[in-house]
Specification:
The structure holds 2 protein chains of 2 kinds.
Chain A: E1 7-8, H1 9-19, E2 24-27, H2 34-42, E3 48-51, H3 55-69, E4 73-77, H4 81-84, H5 87-95, E5 100-106, H6 122-126, E6 132-135, H7 142-154, E7 160-166, H8 167-171, E8 173-174, H9 195-207, E9 211-215, H10 217-221, H11 225-235, E10 239-241, E11 256-259, H12 266-274, E12 277-281, H13 287-290, E13 301-306, E14 320-323, H14 326-337, H15 347-359, H16 373-383, E15 389-392, H17 396-404, E16 413-414, H18 425-435, E17 441-446, H19 447-452, H20 457-462, E18 468-473, H21 478-487, H22 503-509, E19 513-517, H23 523-532, E20 537-542
Parallel strand pairs in A: 2-3, 2-4, 4-5, 5-7, 6-7, 9-10, 9-12, 10-11, 12-13, 13-14, 15-16, 15-17, 17-18, 18-20, 19-20
Antiparallel strand pairs in A: 1-8
Chain B: E1 2-11, H1 16-26, E2 31-38, E3 44-53, H2 55-67, E4 71-77, E5 82-92, H3 96-108, E6 112-116, E7 120-127, H4 129-138, E8 143-155
Antiparallel strand pairs in B: 1-3, 1-4, 2-3, 5-7, 5-8, 6-7
Classes of the chains: A alpha/beta, B alpha+beta.
Chain lengths: ~575, ~160
């Protein structure tokens, strides 16, 4: 090697990742990525490879790692089935705007399009679910493509980038090019909001009698929480958050009305529907957050701050569009608003929202024979602090957590919002723990969601990961069962998971620990045991299979069509 | 529904057309015509698309195009832009009367006869969309065997 100055492309690829501060890579080897894995072994001191048990877990781990650290998560798989197993996770990151680099091997260039063994057209398959994709066709381009991919994944609205690397490209030995062109013509991001528009927005905010902040995940991504808080402190405007925006604003504040949307809090939906000015920030206004498009907050003027201009006016028409990074725009907006004393136009609205917020809280301390999921949340609230990370799967437990569990620090609630990917929870909890090893990571999962990626308990053991998994076990696909109870006259089609494994024994079979709870009085002790356990200890809680997570609106309805308990009178008719 | 025309400068790389047409499909944009060719810029192609839709749909289309990394520049073709289309029409004839009629129609339209056989005549029409449509309408009473159109290409004036 010494008398040969040529370098393998695989080495260039791994070196480039290391140079760009990639310290962890999640993956699974296979024939078409052996050269890269060889380099990963060579560089194991500099870049840690986490060996998963299924590629879908690798991409979910990279996804939550990115959400926690703010850096792009990187995952790697082999060609064909390895690469197609990444798809769900890539789509998940795409819908939740997570910076992600997904790398997969490919058959050698001279075999592409021959339907070779373990060949799949990943460029075609990933096209609609990535921000961009690349195939390395010349070894000289490898470094440039990795650098561009990192830039694209990070810059502007974050998103996943897929890189297809034919195995012969990895083996090729080249003299690395001296210069790499990482400029991408036409790829420009506006981060600073237009000053005139911001002035206009400030004027509307001053005049508004019933203003509401409608906060999405973009506020967390751009670290704009403190700017938002500063504005709320002077304006006293109530805040609602979408599922992705949860934790962007401290939920123990009286002005935080909580989650809005299909399964939002009543006070949040009410505020939005009755508002005369919505300040939408970092949200793409998805159907789940806004309900029926043409009945969404019909009486309000709307300011929309987003880094992606295509989101402004896509679903809902907007009066004052502001393209820019939430942090920068809110900073400028704060400056504009703090120039003069803020008028008291909205003070009676503020008072009534604070009152409504309190009335909207129902007791979680339910002492029923069968354990209510609310009771579990009640106990968790006593244990979880603002320093902890909460990760969820997808289903009833997720909405129980989103609806009732109060978060205080931005980015401490990790969930699959847009795609609603069952099985996200366990790998995401692992990725979150690797991204923030000093923190306690609580996984709240359902029995159905958990089983979709339960094999990753092996990764937990192998990587010596300590998380606190809490399984809400009702032996049902709870959310679907709820829909069937409510909308299909109780016809329970294929939602009973009666043959669930014994989760305690399952944990033990992976050389982990487990504890089962069927008495509401023992929930806190069990969670405490799991926290104190040296390794990961699953807490399986047998919850009531008949319980619905309410209030909710049925699909396709407007935000004011909430039904369920906790709704005591006719707020919406006022 | 107004017709809108866009000129899009894109990287000339494999898969770029798929990325653009995939976005049209995915986002439910109805494209009337699309034509692709090389451009004045090395390694860049120019795509001309004609889109029917409302003003807000058109704005959304432009925003979505901007999101594609391979799209370098987008120009609206407006204010009476220069728009041209090429059309080839093959017509079957069974009398010299029909053949002569077609030749004289073509002369009026400044079309070219580019191929002729014992029973077919092939006419080349170049012009704006309307001219091509008008000519096709004019000769529609004859036995048209085949029509091939390029879709519109164009640029702004000046």
């Amino acid at each position: 090697m010494k008398n040969n100055s040529k370098t393998s492309t695989a080495k260039i690829i791994v070196d480039t990742l290391i140079e760009n501060n990639v310290k962890t890579i999640f993956g699974y080897p296979g024939a078409a990525v052996i050269p890269i894995f060889d380099e990963l072994l060579e560089n194991r001191e500099k870049i840690h490879h986490v060996l998963v048990r299924h590629e879908q877990a690798a991409v979910h781990m990279a996804d939550s790692y990115a959400r926690i650290t703010g850096k792009p998560g990187v995952c790697i798989a082999t060609s064909g089935p390895g690469a197609t197993n990444l798809i769900t996770g890539i789509a998940n990151a795409h819908l939740d705007s997570v910076p992600l680099i997904a790398i997969a091997g490919q058959v050698p260039t001279n075999k592409i399009a021959s339907d070779a063994f373990q060949e799949s057209d990943m460029m075609g398959i990933t096209l609609p679910i990535t921000k961009h994709n690349f195939q390395i066709r010349k070894p000289e381009d490898a470094k440039e493509i990795i650098l561009k991919a990192i830039k694209i994944a990070n810059q502007g609205r974050p998103g996943p980038v897929y890189i297809d690397i034919p195995v012969d490209m990895q083996k090729a030995k080249i003299n690395p090019p001296k210069k790499n062109h990482t400029k991408i013509p036409g790829f420009n991001t506006v981060t600073k909001g237009n000053a005139k528009q911001i002035k206009l927005a400030a004027d509307l905010i001053r005049k508004a009698k019933k203003p509401v902040f409608f906060i999405g995940g973009g506020v967390i991504k751009s670290n704009a929480s403190s700017e938002l808080k500063k504005i709320v402190d002077i304006t006293k405007i109530p805040v609602v958050t979408t599922l992705m925006g949860k934790s962007a604003y401290p939920e123990d504040d009286d002005l935080c009305l909580g989650m809005v949307g299909m399964q939002g809090r009543k006070c949040a939906n009410f505020a939005v529907q009755k508002s005369d000015l919505l300040i939408i920030t970092g949200s793409r206004l998805s159907d789940r957050s806004v309900g029926k498009f043409n009945e969404f907050s019909a009486g309000s003027k709307k300011i929309h701050i987003d880094i992606d201009p295509a989101e402004i006016g896509k679903n809902i028409s907007i009066d004052v569009p502001i393209v820019g990074d939430a942090k920068s725009v809110l900073e400028d907006l704060y400056y504009e608003l703090s120039k003069n004393t803020f008028p008291k136009n909205n003070s009676s609205w503020k008072e009534s929202m604070i009152r409504l917020n309190k009335e909207c809280c129902c007791s979680l301390n339910i002492s029923s024979e069968k354990i209510s999921a609310k009771k579990v949340i009640y106990e968790l609230e006593k244990i979880i602090t603002e320093k902890d990370i909460i990760v969820t799967g997808v289903g009833q437990h997720q909405i129980f957590a989103a609806h009732f569990l109060k978060t205080k620090k931005p980015g401490t609630f990790i969930t699959s919002g847009g795609l609603g990917t069952m099985g996200y929870g366990l790998p995401a909890a692992i990725g979150a723990k690797i991204g923030s090893p000093e923190k306690r990571v609580f996984l709240l999962d359902g029995d159905g969601s958990f089983q979709m990626t339960a094999q990753e308990l092996a990764t937990i053991k192998q990587e010596k990961i300590k998380i606190i998994p809490i399984i809400f076990n009702n032996s049902y696909l709870g959310m679907v069962a709820q829909w069937l109870r409510l909308f299909k006259n109780n016809r329970m089609s294929n939602v009973y998971l009666g043959k669930n494994p014994d989760f305690v024994k399952l944990a033990e079979s992976f050389s982990l620990k487990g504890i089962r709870v069927d008495d509401p009085e023992k929930i806190r002790d069990a969670i405490q045991k799991s926290i104190e356990s040296a390794g990961t200890m699953i807490v399986e809680i047998e919850v009531d299979p008949e319980e619905n997570i309410l209030p909710m609106i049925s699909s396709g309805n407007s935000l004011d069509k909430l039904f369920g308990p906790c709704i005591t009178d006719n707020y919406f008719k006022q | 529904m107004k017709k809108h025309v866009l000129s899009i400068l894109v990287n000339n790389e494999p898969g770029v057309l798929a990325k653009i047409s995939g976005m049209f499909y995915r986002r439910n944009f109805n494209i009337d015509t699309i034509s692709v060719g090389s451009s004045e810029k090395y390694n860049h192609s120019r795509i001309i698309i004609v889109f029917s839709g409302s003003e807000s749909e058109f704005e959304q289309l432009i925003k979505q195009l901007h999101k594609l990394i391979d799209v370098v520049k987008i120009t609206k073709l407006e204010n009476n832009p220069l728009l041209r289309e090429l059309c080839l029409i093959k017509i079957k004839y069974d009398s010299s009367k029909i053949r002569d009629d077609l030749i004289s129609y073509s002369q009026v339209y400044k079309n070219k006869i580019i191929d002729i056989s014992n029973d077919t005549i092939t006419i080349q029409v170049v012009g704006n969309h309307k001219k091509v449509n008008n000519f096709i309408k004019l000769i529609s009473k004859y036995k048209i065997k085949e029509i091939a159109r390029t879709g519109i290409t164009g640029m702004n004036r000046g």
